[in-house]
Amino acid sequence: MATRIDGKKLSAELLTSVAQNAAEFQREFGLRPGLAVVLVGEDPASQVYVRNKTARATESGLNSTEYRLPTETTQAALNDLIEELNSDPEVHGILVQLPLPEHLDEEQVIAAISPAKDVDGFHPENVGALSVGKDALVPCTPQGCMIMLQQTLGNLSGKHAVVVGRSNIVGKPMASLLLQANCTVTIVHSRTPEPEKLARQADILVAAVGIPEMIGSEWVKPGATVIDVGINVIERDGKRKLVGDVDYAAVEPIAHAVTPVPGGVGPMTIACLIKNTLLAARAQQ
Ligand code: NDP
What is the pLDDT along the chain (285 residues), one digit of tens a residue? Predict the structure, then answer.
């Protein structure tokens, strides 16, 4: 049976060391690292994510401020707020929770955030730096996945990694980080013929698709390490349930290690956001 990779425990350890670092920062510079979290609209899942992010940030000794804007907020008003936060010396990290309401242009919003304060790592400057292997603020979810992989497998060099999904926020940066760690990387997406065949060659399989329990046993090589990024809400036996993109029960008997949902990648994402805020704060001071 596969080992369950405990994202809750790992994230708690990471947050403890970040909290120590935040306390040192406050002693050195006389202020706490500042995180501004912006939420536009009423999306229930986004509200939960934002609440969790600000709670963990506060617990870790950051000065975390939430900006909740109505759905009908204009692009100009959102840009003005970002500009204000960009020039506020007490704000070191800015996160605009995605997705935004349809009338707002996500690309424009991401580009408006100062790259030095872009703790999500989505700004084109940070994306470019990551892809050429320079220091950058690295997107939180793939960063968290890398920590879990390194904890589970140690050195990743020479391993074949298959990433299912090619989004800008998960799949692509995940592939860049695996490549930097000297893996051989294959990216599988919706136009890939017979994706299971490719996935079955993987020592490391990362699922970031957004389809509940799509990755069954036929996708997994015996002994592979499986990272499940998916967060999907489904109805089962009349109850709402959170499941990943991986069918955990089917994969557990075959894999070497698997992340659960919930309690896997999710908590690591938040811990890496707090870590990025501290890195950004130190760089700015
Ligand atoms: P996107 O919808 O942006 O991307 C999904 C990707 O999956 C696309 O590249 C798509 O391919 C690919 N895909 C869709 N269907 C298939 C298929 N049948 N076979 C192979 N590939 C397929 O999603 P995100 O990357 O934003 O998120 C993925 C999942 O991760 C979601 O469940 C999301 O909720 C979760 N998530 C979790 C986070 C966490 O903290 N744990 C953080 C961020 C996301 P194509 O490009 O060809 O359309």
Answer: 999 999 999 999 999 999 999 999 999 999 999 999 999 999 999 999 999 999 999 999 999 999 999 999 999 999 999 999 999 999 999 999 999 999 999 999 999 999 999 999 999 999 999 999 999 999 999 999 999 999 999 999 999 999 999 999 999 999 999 999 999 999 999 999 999 999 999 999 999 999 999 999 999 999 999 999 999 999 999 999 999 999 999 999 999 999 999 999 999 999 999 999 999 999 999
Q: How many CA atoms lie within 13 A of 264 on its CB side?
A: 29
Report the distance separating Cα 3 and Cα 60, nearest Å.
29
Is 151 in the same domain as 253? yes
- Long-range pairs for 127-131: beta carbons < 8 A, 24 or more residues apart: 127/168, 127/173, 130/173, 130/176, 130/177, 131/176
Polymer length of the chain: 285
Instruction: Judge if 156 and 93 occupy the same domain.
Output: no
Domain of 34?
30-114
81: in domain: yes
Is residue 161 domain-shared with residue 261, that is, in the same domain? yes
Q: Which CATH number is 258's domain given?
A: 3.40.50.720
Residue 165 CA, ligand 1 centroid: distance in Å: 5
Distance from the alpha carbon of residue 153 to the mean position of ligand 1, in angstroms: 24
pTM of this structure: 0.97
Catalytic residue status for 151: no
Count of structural domains within the chain: 2
Q: Given the CA of residue 166, which atom of ligand 1 is nearest to it?
A: 9
> Does a structural domain hold residue 278?
no
Q: Answer yes or no: 120 catalytic.
A: yes
Which residues partner with 94 through β-bridges? 36, 118
User: Pocket residues for ligand 1 (CB within 6 Å)?
Assistant: 141, 164-167, 169-171, 188-191, 195, 208-211, 229-232, 265-266, 269
